[in-house]
Amino acid sequence: MASVKLDGAGAQKMKTLEEALITLQQIHGLVERMAMDIKNQKGAGVVPMQIKRAAAPLVGMLKGQFGMIADQVSTMILIGGRGGGDMVKLRSYREQVAQLRTAIDMAGAKVKKDHAVEIELAPE
After folding, report:
1. Does the pTM of the predicted model rise above 0.90?
2. Other Cβ atoms within 10 Å of 99 Cβ, number
3. In terms of residue numbers, what domain contains 14?
4. Per-residue pLDDT of the chain (124 residues; tens, 9 = 90+)
5. Is residue 122 part of a domain?
């Protein structure tokens, strides 16, 4: 009977993607907090800076193994510095979070496919 597991490189890549997904969830929470502030007519306040601060380490984490995803995170960081209204920034942040989540999920599936190693289980 054969089973499948990841090789060493695949396990490391999956660990990186899982950490990136945790950070992305934190960023998503900040984006939704920004949405609530805008809905309550408080303005975005310091939330764009908090998003930038939370996303900056993510670029470094992903750059070595997943350069394209790291570039998407860099694009999200740039959104906070652009001009325009808070609603435009919020919409852009939400789009970027959705795109990053999709990219991380797709990268995870690719890692599982490319780094799968069959192992032989002992018969019982």
Report:
1. no
2. 14
3. 2-114
4. 467 777 888 889 889 999 999 999 999 999 999 999 888 888 777 888 899 999 999 999 999 889 999 999 999 998 877 777 888 889 999 999 999 999 999 999 998 888 877 777 767 6
5. no
